[in-house]
Amino acid sequence: KNYYGGNWASFSFSGLLSWIKEKQQKPEVSDECEDWRKLILENEEVIFLNNSDKTIEHVEDFCFGNEDSAEDVEEAGALSKLPLFGTSGAEGAAQESEEETIPMENTLPEKTAGSDPASATEGNETEITSESGSSHNAASGESASHVGKTEAAPSESSAQEPKKITYSQIVREGRRFNIDLVSKLLYSRGLLIDLLIKSNVSRYAEFKNATRVLAFQEGKVEQVPCSRADVFNSRQLTMVEKRLLMKFLTFCLEYEQHPDEYQDYESRTFAQFLGTQKLTPSLQHFILHSIAMVSEADCSTLDGLQATRKFLQCLGRYGNTPFLFPLYGQGEIPQCFCRMCAVFGGIYCLRHSVQCLVVDKESGRCKAVLDHFGQRISANYFVVEDSFLSESTCKNVCYRQISRAILITDQSILKTDSEQQVSILRMPPVDRGQPAICVIELCSSTMTCMKDTYLVHLTCPSTKTAREDLQPVVQKLFNLNTETEKEIEEVDKPRVLWAVYFNMRDSSGINRSSYDRLPSNVYVCSGPDSALGNDGAVRQAETIFQEMFPTEEFCPPPPNPEDTVYDEEELASEDSGLNNAPEAKPEPSPEEGSSEGGATVEPEHSEG
């Protein structure tokens, strides 16, 4: 591939347009090395690999923005001079912005790690900490961000009417966008955050707190109270509802200590159990769709209680919600691991395809791979992403699909005084038998979109094509009408400026035995799944590593650079420039950063 991360990648707007064009074209089959078969010995056989990615289908993109002339768009594209692939969001922002960056300071320390829903903090600037060591900024030696300059408040008229954004403006500001192919958030006490802290990969990334959890009820979007402070400050709940909600959430945190409360409902759904808890329909809706975030139809009572407890336990570690989002997009995470790998001698080769696996007939083990130059590369173990395996290898595999939509809009789905909001909304199924849809809305301070726009991701397990699955929800939440005279019910909805729909293969959860003729030392890792978090990917990575190296620690803390001893060959390779990892990202520019900006992942304070 020409970029890091596979289906976990992030693109600038121009890069995404190139990706869309590539996926809409039929792949060309070519054999760049005609004589590579001569390199196979008599006691060897080959397992062919795919040279084209077939994990993306039904790609459809639409422009709803103000009409631009072809000359305007062409001129904007020429001015932007955007690379197609291979540039990280951080690098693109560094090249694009010439303003001075503002030092980051004054992070809020983590609150006591409570399982109490009352432990949430106000605001969304944080330090991510573990339970040993002193707190510091691993990237810069300072605490996380605070911008020392504030902008004047917008006028009443400008607050009411969003600025008109044209397609040529989006193209011209294309470097401001870092658009993820897969949309996820990080649970503040999830496996990925723990791994980032333990391995010290966190030094290469910054995060922004998700500021709001939303719900869609009775045709409108509203904010869900999560913490105790939110609950008792809420104007949408009566005093009785507040007490009922707090009582139930407290029970969920310690439900295992009270089995008599739920054991009669273990064989029934979580929705049925909620109906017995004296909760109003509104509270049941909040808990089911916005806190537990589980299916109403088939989630068991125990699974629902566990999901609710996980949500509550993640509250208060870094902010008012359980979630974090990496600045510059989810695609920064694989690049961060590439940077750490490069520090210790790993090499990541872009634009370097592999033709086949070379297997020894006697032992059945894979000996090497042949690249598109006909070069043989030998190794003891081979880790292959599922999309590289050929149809003959995967003939017995049954794949699921993920429906994805990415929208660029002109305003938030729930307007508040602050425009810099990161929101998550779980839309209930439109029809019976349909999946719920996860909506994540990102503001410009996440470094994923240009100023005065929002980037909206929609995700659900597929039942049809992505547009058929997701467009009904898009029409409920957004205005697709490009006419000047809007209908009354469309006036307050955000306007979609541009959209793309596509289906992505979900290869998670596939048993190794489903693959045909797979050598014992070849390990298959899946692409992204449809879950909100990253726990599945972390568990799979650890499982594969332990199978290869059962006596080694998975992603151990790196040694102190001062204690590292290099031999002459390592020093010579460093001098020759064999370090092709992405560059470290810069701090946000004053225009894009805000006082609600990034959090750094660092070792935690030890209490006492």
TrEMBL record:
**Compositionally biased tracts (Polar residues):** 121-143
Task: Name the Gene Ontology biological process terms.
Answer: intracellular protein transport; small GTPase-mediated signal transduction; vesicle-mediated transport
UniProt feature, compositional bias: Acidic residues: 564-573
Q: Name one GO cellular component term.
A: cytosol
> Could you confirm whether the keyword Membrane appears in this record?
no
What is an example of a GO molecular function annotated in this UniProt entry? transferase activity
- Annotated Pfam families: RAE1_2_domI_C
Which InterPro entries does the entry mention? FAD/NAD-bd_sf, GDP_dissociation_inhibitor, Rab_escort, RAE1_2_domI_C
- Enumerate the UniProt keywords alphabetically: Cytoplasm, GTPase activation, Transferase
Tell me the compartments it is located in: Cytoplasm, Cytosol
Q: Locate the region Disordered.
A: 81-163, 551-608
Q: RAE1/2 domain: from which residue to which, for each copy? A: 402-530
Amino acid composition bias (Low complexity), ranges on this chain: 86-95
Protein family (similarity comment): Belongs to the Rab GDI family.
What's the name of the protein? RAE2 geranylgeranyltransferase
